[in-house]
C-alpha cells in the first residue's frame, strides 16, 4: 500500500513551487491550506514545521520542509516520474549544484534585494552569495547552457526549483530579464504540469478573495 502524501501550503507562498513539483510527480496528494496569522502558527502545525511556515509535506510518517528539499525528496521518492538523474549518474552533479545554488545564493540575493539588505561591497566575502552581480552572472551561465534543461535533455526537479526562482525574481523586478532567463523560463513554463499547478493555486486565491468581506 502506498504511503499517504499531504501537502501543507498557502496559494500565495513558495508552496507554489511544491505544487508544481507534485503535479510533475503525478501521485495523489491531499492539500491542507493554512492561514498566515492563524493555522500556520498553531501548535498542531508547529508540530510539523516549528517555523510555522509553508510549504511542508508529510509522506507517511516522514516530514519534509523547505521547498528545494521537498523537490529533491519527491524526485527520489517517486523515481518513475524521471525527475532526477539516477544515483551514480554524472548528471547528479549539476542537478544538485543548480538546485541548491538557487536555494542558497539566489534565494539570498532575491530576499536581500527586496528588503534592501544586500551585503555592502566591503563585506561581500562574508556573504555566501558574494555579490548580487556575481550570483546573477553565474545563474545566467546555467540558464544559457547548450541544452534545454539544467541536466541536458532531461527535465528534472532542479528545473522546477530554478525555473520558479528565476520566474519569481523576474516577475517582481529583482532579477533582470536577460535573454537566457526569459528563454529558459519560457521553456519550463510550457509544461502541462506547470500550467495545471498554477491553475489550482490561482483558483484558490480567487476563492479566498471572494470570501473576504467587502470593504465598507
Features:
alpha+beta; Glutathione S-transferase Yfyf (Class Pi), Chain A, domain 2; 4-stranded mixed β-sheet; 216 residues; single chain; Glutaredoxin
- Assign a percent range to the helix content: 40-55%
Overall pLDDT: 96
CATH class wording of the largest domain: Mainly Alpha
Strand content: 5-15%
Helix-strand category? alpha+beta
Give the name of the CATH architecture of the largest domain.
Answer: Up-down Bundle
Spans of at least 5 consecutive residues whose pLDDT stays below 50 are none
CATH topology description of the largest domain: Glutathione S-transferase Yfyf (Class Pi), Chain A, domain 2
- Report the order of strands and helices: EHEHEEHHHHHH
Q: How far is the N terminus from the C terminus?
A: 53 Å
Q: What is the gyration radius calculated from CA atoms?
A: 18 Å
Domain module tally: 2
**Order of neighbouring strands in the sheet with most strands:** 2-1-3-4
Shape: globular
Q: Would you count the extended β strands for me?
A: 4
